[in-house]
Request: fold
Amino acid sequence: MHQNKNKNHIPVLLEEVITTLSPKLNESYLDLTAGYAGHAAAILAITKNPSGSVLVDRDVTAISYLQKKFLDTGVNIIDQDFLTASKNLKDLKYKFDLILADLGVSSLHIDEAQRGFSIKNNGPLDMRMDQRQLLTAQKVVNEYPREDLIRILKEYGEEPKAKLIVDKIINNRPLTSTEELAKLIEPVWSRSTIHPATRTFQALRIEVNKELSLLSESMNVWLDLLEIGGRIGIISFHSLEDRIIKNFFKEQSQSGYESSLKILTKKPLRASPTEIAHNPRSRSAKLRVAVKIKK
Ligand SMILES: C[S@@+](CC[C@H](N)C(=O)[O-])C[C@H]1O[C@@H](n2cnc3c(N)ncnc32)[C@H](O)[C@@H]1O
Reply:
């Protein structure tokens, strides 16, 4: 089954990643969100340095795919969230020439209704990237206090009708399926170009997977893991993540002689119309790349 799974996930901005990260023969490589190895396979084909490569993912299905794909190649595979993995690698004094993070979910997450990420295909309210963790979307929806839910929908979903939606949720508890939740929200936005529940689903997903806090906490560690002259590329899919990356790159590149990074992408790189037509998921992708110039 796993052999076919990667066919559903097309790596975004692949050409742009290769051009800006500019991998070279023998360089070491850390992929923090290896998924179905779309980017990793392309980079490894250039560096030809499997034993100097580390692939991280917190999703067990992705990990078992990676373990099969890279069996007996010497590639190191870590099944942890990228903050824990990065801290451990730092403790072990690892350094890399290339670091890539392609944030968010894979198409496989969305396509598999059972994972509970999809608005369109009914499934349990789950949304965990790491199925070993205890917090699910169902817990957030049914157990969080009203004020916390409103804050999450406002902050992580940028949902203008957060209060209205949360009151509907609270009046209809317990909710168990993605369909129930999506249907409940539909009347709130009657003339919307996106599905009315899109912002709520995004907010819940960010909360369940602690996406923003893990990213904010990880970036300093990633900087420590980078060799001088090493490149780091980060692909994000929503403005909240992109803001964190942009600000971190700015801070680290505008401290005069103490700057540790030089930004290689003045503006984030976006998918071309051809790529978007081929892979609609790439529409919102933004790639920012920087090179380490100083400790
Ligand atoms: C967009 S996909 C990456 C796809 C990959 N670049 C490829 O070409 O196949 C994101 C992957 O990162 C994983 N992921 C997301 N957040 C993570 C985190 N904090 N720690 C570890 N893995 C994470 C997800 O499980 C998912 O498999």
About this structure: Confidence is low (pLDDT under 50) at residues 1-6. DSSP finds 14 helices and seven strands in the chain.
